[in-house]
């Protein structure tokens, strides 16, 4: 599988907590970047290659807001322009490296790898409950998965797999025969199902203290190309008459912000936002332990699928009804990439 990814969009690069005054190397869309914070605290990303002898700038030194190459001392400002060549007063105009727009939101540093003139921070995904009263957000990890990022997006548009892959945490057999519903938009898909009057899944049985059966829901909200937010929860059976009132139950948003590292590797930056145990850091850690189990189950099966696909490049998969949303997800990404190609061609 090739790396099918639009460039004029915001991608999560890394957690804000990982960007410091130390130079660090990050890879996205097959490109290596050097990332650091300016003296004013703003994140900076430059191409991680000195244009002289191609030494990684991440091996250099930070001098104020500029990077001094560790090979011959060429120094580049935060905008990528060379500001010093030792022993040479004249700096040629091509002595520069690409720089990238960055913006911080929801605990992450986001990067715009396309046309900088189009980098509008208001286009970054927004979860209304993040930071609102009555909700608690807890940052998780950055899980490396050795598969193309669209394979992870497939998984995150697919409630049906939960009944079989996540029986220890997020699913049980009660949902196996419940069909999924979906709606499609220009930039995303929404897939959902309700399981009525059934036993609670292990995770909500642990945190909800339910005395009997529950009504539970899964809403998988995908926004192209790299955002997947799963709204799931439970309430006593019959307690919620309308789907829009599900905030009255025990409710969690599991947020997955995907970084396409290259053709065969992605990072799943995940966090959760919940409406219970708001000031309980112990619940943060317990939930994160449960999520790590579940997400590593996804990692294991996705990486095995990748191995099989590479070993059998001519194999053709069959399509089921549950594949409608993942197929539409891929069509949306393809249209975004094609639109950018048309724009470049016309220019």
UniProtKB/TrEMBL annotation:
A GO term, aspect molecular function: 2 iron, 2 sulfur cluster binding
Organism domain of life: Bacteria
Pfam families, per the entry: Rieske (PF00355), VanA_C (PF19112)
Rieske domain location: 10-111
BP term (GO), one: methylation
Record key words, sorted: 2Fe-2S, Iron, Iron-sulfur, Metal-binding, Methyltransferase, Oxidoreductase, Transferase
PROSITE patterns assigned: RIESKE
Signal peptide segment: none
UniProt-recorded name of the protein: Vanillate O-demethylase oxygenase
Organism per entry: Bradyrhizobium jicamae
């Amino acid at each position: 599988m090739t790396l099918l990814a639009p460039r004029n969009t915001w991608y999560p690069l890394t957690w804000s907590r990982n960007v410091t005054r130390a130079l660090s190397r990050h890879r996205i869309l097959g490109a290596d970047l050097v990332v650091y914070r300016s003296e004013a605290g703003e994140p900076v990303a430059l191409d991680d290659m000195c244009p002289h002898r191609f030494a990684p700038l991440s091996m250099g030194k930070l001098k104020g807001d500029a990077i001094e190459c560790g090979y011959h001392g060429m120094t580049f400002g935060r905008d990528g322009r060379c500001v010093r060549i030792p022993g040479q007063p004249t700096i040629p105009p091509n002595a520069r490296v690409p720089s990238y727009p960055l913006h911080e939101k929801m605990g992450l540093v986001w990067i715009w790898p396309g046309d900088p003139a189009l980098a509008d921070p208001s286009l970054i995904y927004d979860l209304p409950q993040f930071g609102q009263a009555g909700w608690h957000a807890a940052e998780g990890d950055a899980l490396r998965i050795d598969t193309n990022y669209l394979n992870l997006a497939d998984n995150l548009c697919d409630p049906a797999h939960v009944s079989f892959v996540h029986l220890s945490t997020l699913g049980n057999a009660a949902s196996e025969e419940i069909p999924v519903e979906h709606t499609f938009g220009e930039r995303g898909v929404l897939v959902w199902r309700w399981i009525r009057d059934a036993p609670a899944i292990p995770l909500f049985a642990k945190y909800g203290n339910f005395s009997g059966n529950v009504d539970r829901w899964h809403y998988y909200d995908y926004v192209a190309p790299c955002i997947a937010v799963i709204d799931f929860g439970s309430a006593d059976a019959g307690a919620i008459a309308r789907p829009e009132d599900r905030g009255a139950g025990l409710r969690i948003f599991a947020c997955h912000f995907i970084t396409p590292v290259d053709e065969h590797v992605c990072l799943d930056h995940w966090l959760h936002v919940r409406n219970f145990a708001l000031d309980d850091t112990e619940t943060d850690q317990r939930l994160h332990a449960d999520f790590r189990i579940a997400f590593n189950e996804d990692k294991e099966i996705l990486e095995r699928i990748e191995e099989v696909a590479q070993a059998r490049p001519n194999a053709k998969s069959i399509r089921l009804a549950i594949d409608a949303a993942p197929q539409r997800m891929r069509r949306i990404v393809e249209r975004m990439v094609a639109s950018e190609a048309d724009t470049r061609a016309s220019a």
